[in-house]
Structures are given as C-alpha cells and as structure tokens.
Design brief:
Helices cover 43% and strands 22% of the residues. By secondary structure, it is an alpha/beta fold. Strands 3, 4, 5, 6, 9, 10 and 11 form a seven-stranded mixed sheet that branches. A two-stranded antiparallel ribbon has the order 1-2. Helix 1 packs across helix 3, helix 1 packs across helix 4 and helix 5 crosses helix 11. The protein has two domains: 82 residues, Winged helix-like DNA-binding domain superfamily/Winged helix DNA-binding domain (Arc Repressor Mutant, subunit A); 210 residues, D-Maltodextrin-Binding Protein, domain 2 (3-Layer(aba) Sandwich). Strand 3, helix 5 and strand 4 form a beta-alpha-beta unit.
C-alpha cells in the first residue's frame, strides 16, 4: 500500500469516532462540521473495507474490526504526537493527567493507600485507572500502550519494556489462625497434599508453588481456583484451606483477618517486586514523577499504607 495516497488525518477521525461513538460529537471534538466527519467515516469504511461503526438505535456500535484497530491506531497517533510535540512541563500540583496502571487486587491493597495519600497532599487533580491483567496480558498492554506502568514480578519482557526493582519480598503459606499449620508443611509432599486456593492470574502461584513442585514430581491439591486474591482471606479464615501469598501482603491482611503465616523452607521463596514500563515513557516528565513517587513511598514492604 502506498502511504502517500492515504490521508493520515483519517486516523485522527477514527480515533475521535471510537472515543465518542457518535458522528456529531466526534466532529465537535475535532472542530469540524458533521458533514466532514460523515465523509471521513465513509472514507475510513472504504479504506478498511469494514463498516467500523454500525448504528443501533441512538448509538453507534464498533465492529470487531474497529475494536481490533483501535489500540494500534491510538498507539500510532500517540507516537506521532510524541515526535512532533515539544516536551511538556509537568507539575503534579496542577496536572490533570490520568495514569493507567496494572496492579493485582492484592498489590492495590498494598500500594494504593499511600499513593492516594500522596495524591491528596501533592497531586490533587491526578487520576489513576487500574487494570488487573495476567502476566502475558500485562506485557501486551504495555506494548499496545493501554497500560503505562505495571507492578509485578518475573515478567518475561522484550527489550522495549524497562524495569526497576521496587522491594524484596518472600512467599509464605497462609492459613486460619487456629490451624496447627507448621506440622502440616514440614516438607514439600505434606504441603502439596493440603487443600489449597489457587489464583489463576497470579505469577506467585505459578513461579513459587506449581512450577517448583512440578520439578519434584508433585502437584498441589487445588480445591478452589479464583481469578482474584481478595476472595481468599475470608475463605482461609473460615476453612481448612491454605494458600501461598507474598509475606508483605499476608502481614497486612492478617491485621484484619484471623490468619497465620508460615515459611516454606523447602521452596525458593524470595523474589522482587518491580516497576515495568515501555521505553516510550522513560523520559516522560509525568511518568518519571509517578515512578519516583511509587519508589519513594514503597521501597520497603513495611512502608505504612
């Protein structure tokens, strides 16, 4: 395809249409007339050989093709903006920027209270949009620019994703407070046989339990699989089930639930939480401020909040 024959302003129109799902509002957003936006939609449909937006009542519903195109076109337009636009000054006191972060539900419990406290004090207009994604989906989201910053561990990343160590942690076994837990987990075999909760999106479960036990020809007795962690504490406190969990988070949850923690000396349990971001944001002033804010407030797992 000859790019010189394509009006790249059509991609700007596509982005506005996908954001507003409305021809008139998209036209107003770009400061053009409704006939001009309607004409742009017609040319987009011809370019991509797809209806892109289909009217349903008062709404315009994007097709599967449009939804597939949206993140790549948004990424392309952001890249063009970064090339053309001069670096902007960033002031946390006045900025109204929205940061898109990947955090699990447990990391949200651990990290967000201090971040929100800092927002109140120094960045009152900044907003945060949190997504909980699997490790593979997290890397893809950073590549596609739908997530700007992730906190996780052991992500398998390309060179375009940068990393900074946040703090060290370890994995522990968690159970209800009155369970005689220590005698039940003296070795890998006895631990594997206990009824357990597994979190399907957790790299902790995979890396620090399932994979290590598999190397010993063992597998855990999984009786409950859940997609998120915050269902686990109440279940653990009222049942005979156990789970593996980062010690920093287990300590925080134990303050609100009748839980105990126990080390797993037969497994390698130490690891590091890290910040991950795409290199496109490495020198972004606002992004650098956000990274440093998280580093300053959460360098240690014992940091309040």
């Amino acid at each position: 395809m000859n790019l010189r024959r394509i009006d790249l302003n059509l991609l700007v129109a596509f982005d506005a249409l996908m954001q507003t799902r409305h021809v008139s509002r998209a036209a107003a957003h770009l400061g053009i007339g409704q006939p001009g936006m309607s004409a742009a939609l017609g040319r987009l449909r011809q370019l991509f050989d797809d209806p892109l937006l289909v009217r349903r009542g008062a709404e315009m519903i994007p097709t599967d093709r449009a939804l597939a195109l949206q993140p790549d076109i948004r990424k392309l337009l952001r890249g063009v903006e970064e090339i053309i636009a001069p670096p902007e000054d960033f002031s946390p006191e006045t900025s109204e920027r929205v940061f898109r972060l990947r955090l699990s539900d447990l990391l949200s419990v651990l990290l967000l209270p201090a971040l929100m406290s800092n927002r109140t004090q120094t960045a009152p207009h900044i907003r945060y949009d949190i997504a909980h994604l699997s490790p593979i989906a997290t890397v893809d989201a950073m590549e596609r620019d739908s997530v700007e910053l992730a906190v996780s561990t052991g992500l398998d990343c390309p060179k375009s994703i940068l990393k900074y160590p946040l703090f060290e942690d370890s994995v522990v076994c968690v159970a209800r407070a009155d369970m005689a837990l220590a005698p039940l987990i003296q070795n890998a075999e006895s631990f594997a046989g206990l009824p357990q909760i597994r979190v399907s999106q957790s790299p902790i479960d995979d890396r620090f339990a399932d994979r290590q036990l598999e190397a010993q020809d063992l597998s855990r007795n999984i009786v409950l699989t859940v997609p998120h962690w915050l269902a686990a504490p109440e279940i653990l406190a009222t049942s005979d089930l156990v789970a593996v969990m980062p010690a920093s988070i287990a300590q925080k949850l134990s303050a609100h639930h009748a839980l105990q923690t126990c080390a797993l000396p037969f497994l390698e349990t130490t690891f590091q939480w890290s910040l991950y971001w795409h290199m496109r944001y490495d020198n972004d002033p606002g992004h650098r401020w956000l990274r440093q804010t998280i580093i300053d407030t959460h360098r240690s797992p014992n940091t309040p909040g």
